[in-house]
Specification:
The complex is a heterotrimer of chains A (166), B (350) and C (525).
Chain A: H1 2-26, E1 50-52, H2 69-73, E2 79-84, E3 91-98, H3 107-111, E4 117-119, E5 134-135, H4 137-140, H5 151-155
Chain B: H1 2-9, H2 17-26, H3 31-68, H4 85-94, H5 106-122, H6 141-148, H7 151-162, H8 166-197, H9 202-207, H10 221-234, H11 246-249, H12 259-284, H13 295-314, H14 322-349
Helix pairs in contact in B: 3-12, 3-13, 4-12, 5-7, 5-12, 7-8, 8-10, 8-14, 10-12, 10-14, 12-13
Chain C: E1 21-26, E2 29-34, H1 39-48, E3 56-63, E4 70-77, E5 82-89, H2 106-117, E6 166-171, E7 183-189, E8 192-199, H3 207-211, H4 220-224, H5 232-246, H6 252-280, H7 284-305, H8 327-350, H9 353-359, H10 367-372, H11 378-381, H12 389-392, H13 413-436, E9 456-464, E10 467-475, E11 483-487, H14 489-494, H15 497-501, H16 506-516, H17 520-524
Parallel strand pairs in C: 2-5
Antiparallel strand pairs in C: 1-2, 3-4, 4-5, 6-7, 7-8, 9-10, 10-11
Helix pairs in contact in C: 6-7, 6-13, 6-16, 7-8, 8-13, 13-16
The chains are: A alpha+beta (166), B mainly alpha (350), C alpha+beta (525).
């Protein structure tokens, strides 16, 4: 009789499981996001690709003063900077990031004291060769790049409306 | 002509064969040629139907699993519902490199997929799609099914041994143990129905359900449940999919197979799945009987209902361990099947 | 809030002081400095004295810099809730008696020290390399060693003594169920397991060596990659240890934020574990459901930290940014959904008759075995060992939060599942409380840009999703740590696999391995 009871509880437990899958079978919505036709919008703080904030008044065209704090903060030696000019005119002659090494940890952005380096929500970046993973000043400060969020903007209680939003 | 067509479509009275034979012999052509040609034609039709069904079943499995798991399943290839996905996959498999492991037993390795796949198609010979739409209405139809369906186990063992791979060997041995264990209750359940109706002919069994489907019969309903569970084990589906348990044996007896050979195993599995469901529909759900629609459509619909039930079970339950599986088969299912047989005997003479 | 409790010396310890044995007090408990020839005497005392009762090997490692080369291990007493640290300086000959006779948990730990430092342990039953390849030449963590040496001559397979009917199969390193690259060399007799020998190191990336050439802040993103499904729970012990070393106090708001994110990561980790475990046993739908729920948690983590998996959100002195607006509401919403779905998992999986047949009574670990073998976390609590670092050696603001420690007595696979399911519920409860009591204020303390702590050492441990996760930091006054040691719970817990799997079947091996819950990133480091 133990056997009968065991059998019955077994059958009932299986039936309950079947009910759960049945309810899910009919439930909507589905969680699939059909990439690339549909794309997920990351959160505003998402750690994606980088951008150097433009400043047409400065030499070099960006807010960057080639202080090198970002390169120093980076755990993976991603950033290479060649400074040029002195004092107020100091700017990067060369600013290169090796995104193949990058951990996307955002410590460089946190380190930047001039609100020059920002991180966007872009996550699509592919290439066929390692050289394509190197990005330079022209790409980072390019006219079509999104604005991203700098350290100060991230620290604000509400990320600014003109950044990436959902 | 219209009258003939309607009767033909109803699968009731005649098939194309009689009038054709009449015309053929009437024109003095040798009857033997017609017999052979007709046989080949019917076989081709059955094989074509089976292959198309299998493609549909693979698609259905992926869609059903997607639905149960809150996701989409195939949704790209061939329109919004991905209907051509299986065809694309089959094409891909065909184009793959044919790899035979260097130390494998070539003969066994090459023959195994065939030994597993062919019986699955051969059993369709006695499946009645309509009163006269049976490739061969054998008097011992049920016995034929039982006999042929023991053959895939041999193929699995051949694959397991011939692959020269320990995982495959384990999988093959598990498969044989499992299939033998569940063959017996399956056969008992099926024979129960045969004993009740007094005939081994599949057509005869369906005809005997004119007054009511056997699933509603109190003596035979337990047979249906036993049949369903044993069939799950015969087709190596969760909870009885240990021989090919991905998590444990990588792929069990077909670990070393790739390309078309793997496709044969895969197709064989789904062919056999469809067959047991169709067989179950024949034995318990009244086969081709049903109002309005053509009989063949009814059989296929009932088969698909059972297939969906099997898929539902697969995506819900975890799998049993081999000794639990064997223990369940020999120590629970078999006594139940025997008890059912005795009960049916009493029920039939009450 | 982060100041450790005042060190209580077991009264019997001063009796040991003498030739070759010295005793000192430190902020984290008593430290015994013992010469190798006196080690047995000390170990016996620590194990057997009633007011010592050090029954749990918390950590075991070696330090080479600053000099001298020394073995350092830390013991925990479950009865008295306190640590003791033992330092064994090695002279010209790098050999230290094995302590496996007192704490079997030292088995693999001593192998690792031998592997990376070359220190021999006479008395160890099976001293061979564990993380590096058997033909590796050299010991990477010794100072001056180049971490890219030449390899020895190719190995010949050694035919072991196999009985009749026995065969050896390799489960892994490529295998759907080893949860990473783990190789188990399994000796089978039919379907029954005779012996399991785990081969580790496929994911060894040398983080401990790497950390020695980074600044203290730069190590943090690398810690994420250890237990890569637990996110901030990896950062936590490291920043705690660094903060203790440098005497940094963390603002209260940051502590609460750390708790919120830590518990979210714990829930995410347990959900992933549940999904993969169910998948191993054949219940594929639970796999998808677990991930569906985990998406909600990952979305929250993405909002707050910017990343879904490798969060690296903790910094020395707090967290870099506050939680975004509306986070609390969204977190509570997600918690509601997860709680409801846990019921579903119960009906679908936990109470399922087939699952019970696979899990009940399988792979039983007794409480004594758990402590002796250094097992911690849900695995130990499933065997009745009531140890949870959040309660027994609290850190952060856990003393102010109300929660139950999930405990089961069965010690089998089912018990481990039940403990983790309960922990998900308790974590959500903790998160709710922390969100409700977030105090205002800054989220980051004032910390120098480049940290240069005073020479010394510090140990910090937290309750991670997998158990007692500790970090031992040694500073030499420079901006780079002299030694970073990660005591990972998965490494310690995995050691009992051979013990548990013996005499079960292959299918059970998968269930038992799944229930231990290992992450190879943490095992191999």
């Amino acid at each position: 009789m133990e056997l009968i009871r065991d059998l019955l509880t077994g059958v009932v437990s299986i039936a309950k499981g079947l009910w759960v899958t049945c309810t899910n079978w009919l439930a909507r919505p589905r969680v699939t996001v059909q990439y690339p036709r549909q794309r997920r919008q990351p959160a505003p703080r998402y750690r994606g690709l980088f951008v150097l904030r433009p400043d047409p008044a400065r030499p070099g065209g960006t807010r960057c003063t080639a202080c090198g704090l970002c390169a120093q903060a980076c755990p993976s030696q991603v950033i290479e900077i060649e400074p040029a000019g002195t004092g107020r005119e100091r700017h990067p002659a060369r600013y290169q990031m090796n995104l193949a090494r990058c951990l996307f940890c955002r410590m460089c952005v946190e380190a930047c004291p001039f609100e020059a380096l920002a991180m966007t929500t872009e996550y699509e970046f592919t290439g066929y060769a390692r050289e394509q993973m190197l990005v330079d000043l022209a790409w980072l400060a390019g006219p079509d790049r999104p604005a991203g969020l700098t350290h100060k903007e991230l620290a604000a209680a509400n990320p600014p409306a003109e950044g990436e939003g959902q | 002509m219209r009258d003939f067509l309607s009767r033909f479509l109803a699968g009731q009275e005649s098939t194309l064969y009689e009038p054709l034979r009449g015309w053929w012999v009437g024109h003095g052509l040798p009857a033997g040629v017609l017999v052979v040609a007709w046989g080949v034609l019917v076989a081709a039709a059955v094989v074509a139907f089976v292959l198309v069904t299998v493609l549909a079943l693979v698609w259905l499995e992926r869609k059903v699993s997607g639905d149960i798991q809150s996701r989409l399943g195939p949704a790209r290839v061939g329109g919004r519902f991905g209907v051509l996905q299986t065809a694309a996959d089959a094409l891909k498999l065909l184009l793959k490199e044919d790899i035979i492991p260097a130390r494998a037993d070539r003969a066994l390795f090459v023959l195994a997929p065939l030994v597993t796949f062919l019986p699955a198609i051969m059993v369709f010979v006695v499946l009645p799609f309509a009163r006269r739409w049976v490739p061969a209405d054998l008097d011992v139809g049920v016995l034929y099914v039982i006999a042929i369906s023991s053959l895939p186990a041999l193929g699995m063992m051949m694959a397991g041994w011939g692959s020269n791979n320990k995982y495959a060997l384990l999988g093959g041995m598990r498969a044989v143990a499992q299939l033998m264990a569940y063959e017996v209750p399956l056969v008992l359940a099926v024979l129960n129905v045969a004993a009740y109706t007094g005939t081994l002919s599949t057509v005869g069994i369906v005809e005997a359900q004119r007054t009511g489907w056997f699933i509603w019969n109190p003596a035979l309903a337990p047979s249906f449940l036993i049949f369903f569970v044993a069939a799950l084990a015969e087709v190596n589906r969760v909870p009885f999919d240990l021989p090919e348990a991905e998590a444990e044996l990588v792929a069990g007896y077909h670990t070393e197979y790739s390309g078309m050979r793997f496709a044969l195993f895969f197709l064989g599995e789904y062919t056999y799945l469809f067959f047991v469901c169709a067989f179950g529909a024949t034995l318990f759900l009244g086969g081709w009987q049903g109002p309005l629609l053509p009989p063949a459509v009814w059989l296929v619909a009932k088969s698909y209902a059972l297939v969906l039930a099997m898929m539902w079970v697969r995506w819900t339950l975890p799998r049993l361990r081999i000794d639990q599986l064997l223990s369940f088969g020999w120590k629970l299912l078999l006594p139940l099947a025997l008890a059912n047989l005795v009960f049916t005997a009493f029920w039939a003479v009450r | 809030m982060t100041a450790p409790p005042a060190a209580i010396q077991p009264e019997s310890l001063p009796r040991l002081v003498g030739e070759g044995i010295a005793l000192a007090a430190s902020a984290q408990g008593p430290v015994l400095t013992v010469a190798p020839e006196r080690l047995h005497q000390v170990c016996a005392h620590l194990r057997e004295e009633p007011d010592c009762c050090f029954d749990f090997l918390a950590d075991f490692t070696a330090v080479s810099h600053p000099e001298p080369l020394r073995v350092v291990f830390r013991l925990w007493s479950t009865a008295h809730s306190r640590h003791v640290q033992v330092v064994v300086p090695l002279g010209s000959e790098p050999a230290c008696p094995s302590i496996t006779g007192y704490w079997p948990a030292a088995g693999w730990q001593e192998r690792e020290v031998y592997d990376l430092f070359g220190i021999r342990f006479p008395g160890h039953p099976d001293l061979r390399r564990i993380l590096l390849a058997p033909d590796w030449v050299g010991h990477p963590l010794l100072p001056g060693e180049v971490a890219a040496p030449e390899l020895g001559p190719p190995l010949e397979p050694t035919p072991g003594a196999l009985g009749p009917d026995q065969t050896v199969i390799n489960v892994g390193p490529q295998h759907p169920s080893t949860h990473g690259v783990l190789r188990l060399v399994v000796t089978l007799s039919g379907e029954e397991i005779v012996e399991v020998d785990p081969v580790l190191g496929y994911l060894h990336r040398g983080i401990e060596k790497l950390a020695e050439s980074r600044t203290y802040a730069q190590v943090i993103p690398y810690t994420d990659r250890l237990d890569y499904v637990s996110g901030v729970l990896n950062n936590w012990p490291y920043v705690l240890a660094a903060e203790r070393l440098a005497g940094i106090a963390v603002p209260p708001r940051a502590e609460f934020i750390r708790v919120v994110l830590g518990e979210l990561c714990r829930v995410a980790s347990h959900l992933l574990w549940l999904a993969c475990f169910a998948n191993d046993l054949g219940a594929t739908s639970v796999f998808l459901y677990g991930f569906r729920e985990r998406e909600l948690i990952l979305d929250l983590l993405e909002e707050a930290t910017g990343a879904r998996l490798t969060n690296s959100f903790f910094r020395l002195g707090g967290v870099p940014y506050d939680l975004p607006e509306g986070f609390a509401d969204r977190a509570r919403g997600a918690a509601r959904v997860v709680r409801a779905r846990l019921q579903e998992y119960d009906s679908l999986f936990t109470r399922n008759r087939i699952f019970l047949a696979r899990a009940q009574g399988v792979g039983v670990l007794t409480a004594e075995q758990a402590l002796a073998w250094g097992v911690s976390g849900p695995m130990a609590r499933a065997s009745g060992v009531a140890q949870d670092v959040r309660r027994s050696d609290p850190y952060s603001v856990y003393p102010e939060l109300e929660f139950e420690v999930a405990l089961e007595k069965g010690g089998d696979v089912l018990a481990r599942l039940l403990v983790r399911m309960e922990e998900i519920r308790q974590s959500l409860r903790i998160m709710d409380q922390a969100l409700a009591s977030l105090p205002p204020g800054p989220v980051m303390a004032k910390v120098p840009r480049q940290l240069k702590p005073e020479p010394g050492d510090a140990y910090a441990h937290i309750e991670s999703a997998r158990g007692d996760y500790g970090v031992y930091l040694v500073s030499d006054g420079s901006p780079h740590p002299a030694r970073v040691r990660f005591r990972s719970p998965s490494f310690a817990n995995l050691q009992v696999l051979p013990l548990l799997a013996r005499e079960w079947k292959v299918a059970d091996l998968i269930a038992i391995l799944g229930a231990i819950d290992i992450i190879l990133g943490e095992v191999d480091r």
